[in-house]
Each structure stands twice: as C-alpha cells, then as structure tokens.
Amino acid sequence: IGSQPEHLVRFHSGLWHGPQQKYSTIKKEILAIVLCISKFQDDLFMKKFLLRIDCKSAKEILQKDVQNLVSKQIFARRQAILSAFDFEIEFIKGENNSLPDFLTREFLQGKSDTNT
C-alpha cells in the first residue's frame, strides 16, 4: 500500500485434508486467507498490507463486524484472528488472478513427482 512498487515476497500453498475437503468454497477461501496470514504473521504484524482476493463473498464476510457474524461462528472466529492485522481487501476478477492457480498446479505437480 502506498507508492512503493509491488513485488512478490513469498507464497504459501497446500492441500485440504480430512474434513477440510468437504468445506464449502467460501469456508475454504476464508481458511486459506487465515492460514496464509498466520504463516507470515511475523512479516505482516504491525504493517499495513493489501489482500487481493477473487471471491466477493469472502471480501464481504471479512469486512463485516464480528458481532454480526455470531450465528456463523467459524467466520467470526476467523475474523477475530484477522482483526490483529492492518490490511485492506481488494477484489480482483479470477481471470486477473492467475498466480494462485499456477502455484496450486506447481504444488500438486511437485507432490505427484515425489510419489512416483
């Protein structure tokens, strides 16, 4: 955020295991955001950053007040974790967000290569 040029510092990718595989898409999106921010919390804490996501529903849920999400406890719990960080959320169309798909494919290909 600001006038500095953007650059990719790190990335994180993984697989859903057990019950996570059955989560709804929105739960997976929010969990992925929480896991990534948690993974890089040492770099992100006390710094303002921009989170670009291609899921409008996740953006709306994360921008709501935790009090309004009591009935959806999983979202409130995730949002409470994220409240420790100073970030803005920007929606980008999926067609303009190819990096996550690329990273996922690379991760999966790497897994299949090591299993053969």
TrEMBL record:
The keyword Flavoprotein does not apply. SUPFAM superfamilies: DNA/RNA polymerases. It holds the Pfam family RT_RNaseH. InterPro entries: DNA/RNA_pol_sf, Retrovirus_Pol_polyprotein, RT_RNaseH. One of its GO terms (molecular function) is endonuclease activity. Residues 5-85 form the Reverse transcriptase RNase H-like domain. Keywords: Endonuclease, Hydrolase, Nuclease, Nucleotidyltransferase, RNA-directed DNA polymerase, Transferase. The keyword Nuclease applies. This is Reverse transcriptase RNase H-like domain-containing protein.
